[in-house]
Amino acid sequence: MVKDVIVIGGGLAGTEAAWQLAERNHKIQLFEMRPKRTTGAHVSNRLGELVCSNSLGSKLYDRATGLLQNELRMLGSLLIASAEKTAVPAGGALAVDRELFAEEITTKINNHPNITVIREEVTEINIDQPTIIATGPLTSPALSEKIANLSGQEYLYFYDAISPIVVADTINMDVAFQANRYDRGENEEGDYINCPMDKAQYEAFVNALKQAETIELRDFEREDPNFFEGCIPIEQLAKRGDSTLAFGPMRPVGLTNPHTGERPYAVVQLRRDNLAGSLYNIVGFQTNIRWGQQKAILQLIPGLEDAEFIRMGQMHRNTFVNAPTLLHPTMQFRTAPNLYFGGQITGVEGYVGNVATGLVAAINLSRKLNGLSEWVLPIDTMLGALCHYVTHSEPKHFQPMKANFGIIPPLAEKVKDKRKRKELYATRALESMANSIKSLGDELIEPKHIPIPDKVI
Ligand SMILES: Cc1cc2nc3c(=O)[nH]c(=O)nc-3n(C[C@H](O)[C@H](O)[C@H](O)COP(=O)(O)OP(=O)(O)OC[C@H]3O[C@@H](n4cnc5c(N)ncnc54)[C@H](O)[C@@H]3O)c2cc1C
To answer: 1-13 pLDDT, tens per residue?
Structure first.
């Protein structure tokens, strides 16, 4: 059945979505506003341009992005095939010649008989027209306004102010303790993990923050007067005064350390980041400190000396919707069934994750147009876990997420060895993905041979 579809945005998610729909015999109008209007980060008029690094992350079998790449390969992703075709030597990473990569995608899209590329900015949304919005972190202001009208202003964000996330079982609970301030809340044990500091530890921590190097803002961020308004990074709070943090996000009020029976001088609080309780984010710790230094400074926090961070703090310009409130795991907009979202605007982070959500949106929209059931991926696949995470997080504190093993359900048996554990996650995920693809019964997404790159230790 041939049905017209509009895809808005010719970046990573939009080109993958357009390709997948076109291969399924839908007629696509792909709108891209460049070169008439730029985002401030893109530098060419090519489709599928990488805005920063030329790496699509690790390609190894047992790494989170390597697994996601393998899953996309099984689903016949255009962008993964283009990356492989234009790859440059980069050890265990899938890095590409960025110009050849974008050129390959642009040629493939321009030459597809079912795709018409229209170089115009879209400023309206017709909710009756089957549409995928894949306009990325730098969605044009006019369209952002229309998305905000649809979603409600409070459910569209323009900036990331991400606090670091820690793997729960790497927190030393001989030092940290579970409690809520003033023992409030239903959970007797307490919902928060608290890392207590004495005066000397606090002072050393504040000094480290004051000296830390931060990531430079880009021009399009610096020029925006609203940037970071309302969420000041911890390093800036530290510079405002030695006690500012102790009276702010690190205030110890209402907490007694059960290990000592005393009230700490200051406290770093961590809040559950997923329902499974395997991840915790550090409350109020948005930061722009360079990642290497950030990890070293955070490991000064008592209880976090050996903590594993699955995401470091960061702050940058990023347009994204409150996916837990607005989207189904199929990437369908809850209140407008013809509308789907793909890419960074869904709250999934990273090049490969953005490609992947574009692909999920496209397959589901195609199935809807053909009267087939929706496709919800199993959550033990990396792609299924990402779609599940962004659409099932706690809406009030929702922040974007990239591929990582912390969001995948645990294995039936506990495996201590980290490498072995990740390899088992990957094997389970690929089996599950193969079964899911088979169950779709869709000829076009038969599982493909999955090349497993040599493992590099
Ligand atoms: C500055 C910056 C650096 C980043 N660096 C990295 C990195 O190194 N590694 C990484 O993994 N991730 C990075 N990201 C995050 C993210 O992975 C990329 O932004 C990625 O390109 C997002 O893919 P996307 O398809 O969602 O959006 P994009 O690739 O940005 O595509 C969106 C497209 O929509 C177009 N568009 C916007 N509004 C309209 C409109 N109204 N009408 C028509 N077209 C429109 C844009 O011109 C753009 O071509 C970065 C993000 C930013 C902002």
So the answer is: 445 999 999 999 9
